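Structure, all two chains, one model.
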Amino acid sequence: MKASADATEIVEAVKSGQVTARAVTEAALARIERHNPMLGAFTDVTAERALEQAELVDSKIRNAMDPGPLAGVPFAAKNLYDIKGIPTRAGSKINRDNPPAARDATLVSRMEAAGAVLLGGLNMDEYAYGFTGENAHDGPSRNPHGLDRMTGGSSAGPAAAVAGGLVPLSLGSDTNGSIRVPASFCGLFGLKPTYGRLSRAHSFPFVSSLDHLGPLARSTRDLALAYDAMQGFDEADPAQTKRVNELTFARLKHPIPGLRIAVAGDYFLGAPEVQAEVQKVAKALEVTKTVTLPDAQAARAAAFLITMAEGATLHLERLRERPDDFDPEVRDRLLAGTMLPAVWVERAQKLRRVFRDRVLKLFDGVDAILAPATPMKAPLLGQKTAMFGGVELPVRPNLGIFTQPISFIGLPVVTVPMWQDGEDLPIGVQVIAAPWREDVCLRIAHQLETAGVCKAPVAQGFAD
Amino acid sequence: MAYKPFDADALIDAAAPLLQLRIAPEHRAGIKLNLKTASKMAAVVEQIRLDDDAEPAPVYRA
């Protein structure tokens, strides 16, 4: 299979006997060996396990058994997902001293139960606290569309691996934008489902109030395929919903009659070159309406405070015992987070419900809202400041300004990758829906993809 | 509440012993910067009026 094959294409080829899961796996392992030193995507490669799983898939096919909806699809997971037998480093130096994980993360198990083949763990910002993809211990992930550029983070390796054609699918996490920011910078489709939709069990947490897990891919059908395979109640995640599974893949092509879509105004207005891409999406969908998400700036500020405080609480013992073993930028934010007055954090949690109620009212009049995913295209690796709204500001905390208010209230989002004519670097647009309406996000994204408005190619130089 | 600059050193000096955190001199500037950013964020949040019956978002279910 070519590097550019998406998961759905691989499944069709494997199930029809055109290629074996083993051959697909071996080709992916060869691409990892060739390109990973440049991309910094994988931190652990589970070759032996992958070949065993591929053999299992092939034997099912030989014996006329159902190999599953993801038969033979290579995938990899951000290294905060537990992978049995490997310490879950979560991008840190400290956690790699932990014993190897005793079992797989629930979502990894579900992907494999569906026939997918795990190839390893992927690089990330330390403890998921960052948007750059620069890791002080493992080195940066590099953007396949410009090797001197950031991938974005914190799901940096998941984005580099998919945009670089190493695997068609990856699993990331998103607390404040960590799937959507790298999807934007690396030109990928990314799904951040509704808060509580997918189990987070046996993944290393960051901010329990805001943590989500989800997939990144190069096609909307692959997002839907993976998302469907990972749904289902898991009592090991106390935040998870008991809703029945709401499958999306089979309905992807079904248009939604009378769909009402609006562009997010005010706070979400990006720089002209960013807004031009939002308008391109709006034009393709014949959208003319604009809505205002009230108090979005305060929502973002509240997410910022909750993140600092909950992250600091999680890491307090490590901050006491091993402060010098943290990435310095992460350590200083976490240390500051230990000292926030409780009233700031409690007030932020109250605002979360107020903001939720106000935004949900908007969905009485619209089914989806469009907004930029990032305020800029991928910055250079090491870049510290950039112009935001005519003001020079630090890059690191500002890459998530458009994603944070949305994950703050747990709305489902698909990021679609947009390309300006003649530009090598992409930028993402968020398609946001009401809670539990991942199907709306995915169907709109699929419509845009089918119309050629957005696309997620393997980067030049990495395609075969 | 409008943002008012505050003495981050005083907060660090008071809170660190309480939390049993050793603050290395070279870590202090970064912590101060982050506390100042957080205080600006808190000021933005406090501008939104909350009713007395506003419930915080996480709800424990027995």
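Chain A touches chain B through 38 residues (CB under 8 Å).
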